[in-house]
Amino acid sequence: MSISNLAQELLITPRTIRYYEEMGLLTPFHHEKMSQRLYGPRERARLTLVLRGKRLGFTLAEIKEMIDLYDIDRTEGLQLERTVAYGEKKLQELEEKIQELILLKGELMDYHQQFTELLKKDEPPTNDNLDNR
Amino acid sequence: MSISNLAQELLITPRTIRYYEEMGLLTPFHHEKMSQRLYGPRERARLTLVLRGKRLGFTLAEIKEMIDLYDIDRTEGLQLERTVAYGEKKLQELEEKIQELILLKGELMDYHQQFTELLKKDEPPTNDNLDNR
DNA sequence: ACACCAGTTTACGTGAACGTCAACCCCTTT
DNA sequence: AAAGGGGTTGACGTTCACGTAAACTGGTGT
Question: Separation of CA A23 and C1' C6 in angstroms?
């Protein structure tokens, strides 16, 4: 798969993909004599992971750390213990983010509730209420 | 409460607080003849909200939109209907983010599991296992 | 052979979110 | 009165995550 095909599929630009490679987040095939980049399912999976991370507010550096956790090749030389410990820390952070999101959603829902009721008062029974009767 | 007190409490710099004001996210007391800024509980609440939003990957512009939803004064002139509709859209987005985070956490947990098992194999029973016996 | 298209490198530009520094108050403490 | 200790306003600098443009290369159809 070519770079612009992949870009089109994931709604980003080739530049973005090359940038991620430059940052060490992707490692596509630099075919013999480095003419073109080729992307397999592995790279696409990584890329979607990067994009997910971005949507959730992680920096590329943070995402790289997580990706390296996923990557057996890269963690090869490292101490497994540390990797596992670091993974647990990351999982903890993710859990905290989930809780914060739930909190934020809760607050928004409260205000939403208030406004919805305000709307009921301001706009007393219209025809809409009688439509499906 | 002064600006640097507030900054210290929330682990940010005064500059950041002033910047948020410049962006329309905060509106502290500009005391008579504008000598100094004073922050009450309302502004502190807003600020924590901003920081929460930032941690979750929202831009300041997006956060401002949400804050304006919260703010009765600011939504005064607007059509309540639109405000409510927009609020529902935002709630939807939050829910999607929560789901994505859960997804990401799930993936990380899978890999974590694999690595933990690898570690069990590589490091067969040590003294640690006998310690609390 | 030539045009054309897609991909590549290089390099400078850009917007968001602040950091940093200078110069200037204002109040208080000595 | 002089010296500090915040606070305030510019204004320029900086980092991250790309955008954009230029110049080049490599295969492909005609």
Answer: 24
Res B72: pLDDT: 73
Instruction: Assess contact for A46 and A67: CB atoms under 8 A.
Output: yes
CB pair distance less than 8 Å for B66 and A108: yes
- Amino acid letter, residue A82: R
Fold of the B1-76 domain? Multidrug-efflux Transporter Regulator; Chain: A; Domain 2 (1.10.1660)
Residue whose Cα is closest to the C1' of D27: A35
Domain assignments of chain B as residue spans, ordered by start: 1-76, 78-123
A105-117 pLDDT, tens digit each: 999 999 899 888 8
Q: A115 CA, C5 C1': separation in Å?
A: 55
Instruction: Check if residue A54 sits with its Cβ under 7 angstroms from strand D.
Output: yes
For residue A36, the surrounding DSSP H or E stretch is none
Separation between Cα atoms, residue B16 and residue B18, nearest integer Å: 5
